[in-house]
Amino acid sequence: MDLLARIDDWGRSFHDHPMFWSGGATLSWGDLREKSDALAGAIARAGISSDSPIVVRGHKESEMIIGFLGCAKAGHAYAPIDVGAPEARAQRIIEASGAELVLTPETIRELVARNDPPPSAHSADPSSPHYVMFTSGSTGEPKGVVITRGCLDAFLAWTIDEQQFAPGREVFLNQVIYSFDVSVMDTWTALATGGMVVSLTAADTADFRQLFATLECSGVTTWVSTPALAQLCLGDRRFAASMLPQLRRFMFCGDVLTPDVAGRLLDRFPEVELWNTYGPTEGTVATTSVRVDREMLGRYQQVPIGVAMPGTSVVIEDAEGHQLPEEARGEIVIAGPNVSPGYLGRPDLTARVFSERNGVRTYRTGDWGSVRDGLLFFHGRMDNQVKIAGHRIELGDVEVHLASLPLVRAAAVIAAERNGRPDSLHAFVVLAERGETTDLDIRASLLRELATLLPAYMLPRNFHFLDAFPLTANGKTDRKALAATLTT
Ligand code: AMP
Predict the structure, then answer these.
(1) What is the pLDDT of residue 53?
(2) Could you give the residue ranges of the DSSP H alpha helices within 269-388?
(3) Phi/psi at 378 (5° precision)
(4) Is the beta carbon of 99 within 6 A of some atom in ligand 1?
């Protein structure tokens, strides 16, 4: 059955059941159905161009879900922006998206109150864009990954079949913000299976007491997060099966799951399944998965990222595009119905990494990988993209914005590593003028300005002020030499 029709059916059968909980507020299935219908009606009356995505800007309010579903029912893709994005960055995304309408929780409430009749039919065209996720771009311009209904259907069919979610009974934990596609794994899976989402706010994750209080009464059956949240929770001994008695599975995505975190979770939650999933936004949330157990942790030094979803191929290629044999390291290349058509309005960027091979959409991930015993392993990035606590960051994005500040003549940003993985951002700066101010004052002033351009998770933790950058033989900033100063 078509996704939206299925969601509508759940809305009818589970009318009074909760669908979404966040920050103490609940949205029922019935309210979701009726309010998203009314919103779709209002959007249809607004007369915006049919191919224009709609920006939905907010945090974890229930109106966000109403907004996403209302857009889909009106035949428009939604482009989520979290409130944590500074105004300047949000405006760039809105501009790049070409959106003719920007919704916020307030405007959604107003539009719903008009009670417009919903459009008579929903589009189920698999090639129509369903959402656009904006990720960090290396030139400082966020790039919008277009995901079609067909891509989402392929992802949902796979995960629902693999996990055998109990229809109408799952409670999914949502950790990440809606502009990060790991949220699709909890929210759209819950929508498709008649489940419920318990969504953590920034305030929940910033305060341990509040976080644990929320988790304790959440009834979560399916934990969806980046490994960073589990790592944080493991720091407290109370984080164990007794805190989440209904939990049946952990589903991780978006960043490296270390053997240490995996092992400790298996110890503390002996009855709970542990799944590692992998994939870039460009491949719709996740493309590979594996259930991790003790035996696997004993056999390999790393946690594998698994095997490809059925109908999708994941191969390791060399720089010339030749497939490599088992054990050899190369680029992870994915091909299948879950691969995005490309970056919104950027055929140049799209052509660099996407292609059509024998009629199948293909994406070169830029991730190093290898296959062993039929299982895929991840070996880091081939470029300057890093993950810090699960957030995808192009170092170039931070550099461009830092270099745009009046105080700065030149900037380079390096990710310092801990236990072999990127851990925090270090900014190396040549100042335009030094004056009498201390390094601490300059750092504070740069951070203040940068915070108006970049979300908090992209701000460098450390600043190093230099008179000039070390140069390579061909006159470029010697990033390796800068990185070496962090390890000595
Ligand atoms: P995003 O588009 O934000 O989901 O980031 C995608 C990138 O995150 C991938 O290209 C990988 O570099 C990294 N990634 C995603 N899942 C995993 C995983 N399970 N293990 C290691 N890295 C991952």
Answers:
(1) 98
(2) 294-299, 347-353
(3) -105, 135
(4) no
Residue with the nearest Cα to atom 8 of ligand 1? 254
- Domains within the chain, CATH numbers bracketed: 3-299 (3.40.50.12780), 384-485 (3.30.300.30)
Give me the percent of the chain exceeding a pLDDT of 90: 95
DSSP secondary structure string, 216-246?
HTT--SEEEE-HHHHHHHHTSTT-STTTSTT
Ligand 1 atom 7: residue of nearest CA: 280
Q: Whose CA is nearest to atom 19 of ligand 1?
A: 278
Contacts 24+ apart (CB under 8 A), 156-164: 156/3, 156/188, 156/189, 156/192, 158/309, 158/310, 158/311, 158/338, 159/185, 159/189, 159/286, 159/289, 160/189, 160/192, 160/193, 162/289, 162/309, 163/222, 163/249, 163/251, 163/275
Give residue-wise pLDDT tens across range 102-150. Answer: 999 999 999 999 999 999 888 789 999 999 999 999 999 999 999 999 9
> Using one digit for the tens of pLDDT, what is the confidence trace for 308-359?
999 999 999 999 999 999 999 999 999 999 999 999 999 999 999 999 999 9
Residue-level pLDDT at 488: 57
Residue 466 Cα, ligand 1 centroid: separation in angstroms?
Answer: 33
List phi, psi (to 5°) of 242: -65, -25
- Residue among 186, 285, 367 to mutate when testing ligand 1 (max atoms within 8 A of CB): 367
Q: pLDDT tens digits for 354-400?
A: 999 999 999 999 999 999 999 999 999 999 999 999 999 999 999 99
State both tokens at 441: 């004052």
Sheet (strand 101-103) strand order: 101-103, 54-58, 78-82, 129-135, 143-148, 342-343
DSSP state string for 417-437:
EETTEEEEEEEEEEES---S-
CA 404 to ligand 1 centroid distance, Å: 29
**Of 361, 373, 185, the residue nearest 276 (C-alpha):** 185
Distance CA 152, CA 423 (A): 31
Q: Is 387 in the pocket of ligand 1 (CB under 6 A)?
A: yes
Regarding the beta carbon of 261 and ligand 1, being less than 6 Å apart is answered no
CA 170 to centroid of ligand 1, rounded, Å: 25
Q: Which helix or strand (DSSP H or E) is residue 20 part of?
A: strand 18-22
Distance separating alpha carbons of residues 109 and 20, to the nearest angstrom: 16
